[in-house]
Amino acid sequence: MNAPMSHSATIRLADLSDAGEVTRIEGFVADAGGSVFHRPLWLSAIERGTGNRAHGLLIERGGVIAGWLPLSAVSSPIFGKALVSSGFGVGGGVLVGRQDDAVRLCRAAEELAGRMSVGTVELRGADAPDDWEVIGGRHANFAADLAADDEAQLLAIPRKARAEVRKGLENDLQVSVGSGEDDRRAHFAAYSESVRNLGTPVFPRSLFDAVLDLFGEDADILTVRHGDTPVASVLSLYHRGTVMPFWGGGPFAARSLRANERMYYELMCHARRKGCTRFDFGRSKTASGPFSFKKNWGFEPEPLVYRSWSGGGVAARNIDPTDEGNSAKIEIWKKLPLPIANMIGPWIARGLG
User: What InterPro entries does the record point to (predicted)?
Assistant: First the structure.
C-alpha cells in the first residue's frame, strides 16, 4: 500500500524487517513523546513472544515521518481476529502531529484490515474518526512522580497503605532485581499463580522472555521471596524516565506477608536509583480491587478512552475478563490445578492481545 495523499504526503506499510526503517520509527516515537507501546521494539517482542505478526502504518512528507500507527495482528480461534494498537499493551494508537493525519492513518487501518480479512481495529488511544466507537468509562490509569528519597517515598504513601508497607518491611522477606533465568522462573511462578487465582489465563512465558531479551536495561524483574519461595514478582518497563510495573502478582501467601506492598515500594526506590522520576502504576478496571488498591496508595485515576472500528457488520470482540458474560468461566478457571492452567492458559491468552 503506497497511496498518494494531499499536501505531498504518502501513507504506506512500514518495513519492520528493515533495521534502518525501524531505527527511523524509533527516533520518531522518541521525538514525538510516544509511549513504550508505540515502539517497534514492543511490536517485535509481541511477535516473538506470541506469534502475532507486527505491522505498522507510516505517513511521510518529503521522506520524513509525520505519523505512525503500530499494529499487532492478533488472531484467536476463540476471540477472532483484530488489528490492535498496541497488542498486549494498555496504550498505543496513532502518533501524529496533525489531527487530519490521525484520521488518515485510521482509514488506512480500515483498508488494511479489509485486505487481511480482519473485522476489527482496536486503538488503545483516543484519536480516531468520529464514526469509530468510543470506549470510555471502563478503565483508568494511575501515575505520579517519585519522591526524592526512600523515606520521602514511604511518607508519600497515605497512612493506611503506609502501615501495610511497614508491615512488609518488618517481615523476613528478601528482595532481588534482575533478568536472568532464576528471576524469570520466579516471576512466572508467582505471576501465573496470581492470575489463575483471579480466573485469568496466564500469558506465555515466551512473551516475558521476549520483552526482557529485546528491551535489555529497559526491562527487569523485581522479586520478593520468603525463604526460597517467590511470594511476589513484577516485570517492569522503563521508558522516558518512567517505570511501569506491568506484569506482577503473587500467590495467596503474599497477602499475610504484605509482599505485594513491599514489592511496589521497593520498585519505587529501585526505579528512582535507576534514574526514574515517575511511577506509572498502570491500568485498572473501574471499581475493581486493583483500582481501589492504587487509589489507597494516593494515586489519582485518569480515565482512559479507547476507540474501535468494525467493518461489514462484524461485532467487536469481547476480551474483557471481568465482563458479566465471562463470570462463570472465571469461577471455573480459579478452580483449575495450577499445572493445567499453566499448560492451556498461554494458548488462550496469546489470542487476547
Answer: Acyl_CoA_acyltransferase, BioF2-like_GNAT_dom, PEP-CTERM_FemAB-rel, PG_Glycine_Bridge_Synth
